[in-house]
Sequence to fold (191 residues):
Amino acid sequence: MNKGSEMKMMKILTIFTSIDLSNNHFHGEIPRSIGDLPSLVGLNLSSNNFESPIMSSLGNLKQLESLDLSNNKLFGAIPQELESLTFLGYLDLSKNQLTGPIPQGGQITTFPTSSFEGNVDLCGLPLSKKCGENTDEKSTAHQEHESDESGLAWKAVIVGYVTSFVIGSIAGHFIISKRPNWLIRIYGRKF
Fold:
């Protein structure tokens, strides 16, 4: 894969400028040595199980044109160093666990929303979620509202039961005391 398009190599290159290790079930941290490959043009580590922050040393890859780290378990912030990748024409960081603001400089600002989607705690352009919105306060308020609603529902049920009991008791007493013959006709004996 190169820049999101599948390519077929006709002969083996003697100088590797692209690394595609996608769909391999790799796990752990992304190898730090990747940041020491200055002639790297394409890097695809998508659809693995990498669990680490994105290395700031990727900013050293000045020739990098394509970076695909999607469908992993990467966490933390997107490093500011990625802003210096001036040749970057394709970026996919979607479906990870990235957090914080998207850097707003360099090539990163040119990528569509799809490059970042699936990272719930990521904010800033091009995403619609603005940074600084406190989701914890919103979720707490939402939970309090839900508990208030469920409390109101139980209160309504209790009021209904109490009201039914009171009305039933009064009506039962009235029927038994004022019309005892009616019950005798129904049940066949006197209480």
Summary: Helices lie at 135-178, 180-187.
